[in-house]
Amino acid sequence: MSNRPGKSYQIEKMMIQGARMRVVFFALYLTLVLILGDKQIVLAADSSAQALYGKNLIVNGDAEAAPGTVGGSEIAKEIPGWTRTGNMDVVQYAHGDLRPNSPDPKVLGVNYFVGGPDSPRSTLTQAIDLSSIASELDKGAVSYTLSGYLGGFTDQEDNSMLSIQFEGADGKQLGSATIGPVTVADREKMTKILLRTATGKIPSGTRKAEVQLTITRVSGAYNDGYADNLTLILQH
Question: Distance (Å, rounded) from C-alpha 57 to C-alpha 73?
C-alpha cells in the first residue's frame, strides 16, 4: 500500500501555500503604498515650495486683471488681488495722462495704477503666504527682488512707493524694504514712470510678506502718482 499523500491532501497544501503567498504579496503592497505615499507627500510639499520661486508672487501687479477706466471722476469698481483704501484707480493708457512710451508698450500692457480723484493718499495691499518654504527661510537661504515702474505727472510731486514687510507667524515685523518715490527731478518734469528695484535676503522666521503700494498727492485735486508692473520674485 502506497504512503504517498492523496490528491486531496496535495490540493489542500497548494491552497495553503497560495494563501500564504497572497498574504506576503499583500504585505509588500501595503509597504509600497506607505513608502510611495510618503514620497508623494514630500513631492507635493516640494512642488508647493518650488512654486514660489522664480515667478511674480504679486497678484495683479500689472493692473490687467480687470477692465481699466478712462480716468477722471470714475474709478474702477474692483481691483482684483488687492485691498484698496482711498480712490486708487486702474486707468487705461489709451485714455489717461500717462503714455506707455517708456519702456516698450508691450511690457506695460493696457492699464496702470493711479492715485485717483479727491484722494490725498491711496493704497493697495495684499498678503503673500510664505509658510511652505519655512525651512529654507529659517536657514536664511531665500533672497527677493522687489520691483515696479513708478512715476508721476509733469512737474507735480505726486508720487508712488512700493513697500514690503516681512512678518513671522505671530505677525511681528522682521524686516522691510521700499522702492520709490520717483521724484520730479528723476522724471525731468516729464509725465512718465521709471523702473525701481530693491533686493535682499528674507529674514529668518518669516512666514508672510505684506506688499503695499502707496500713492500720495502733493498738489492739485487729482492724485497723479502712477505705478505699473509691480513684482516680487524669490530666489534660493
Answer: 31
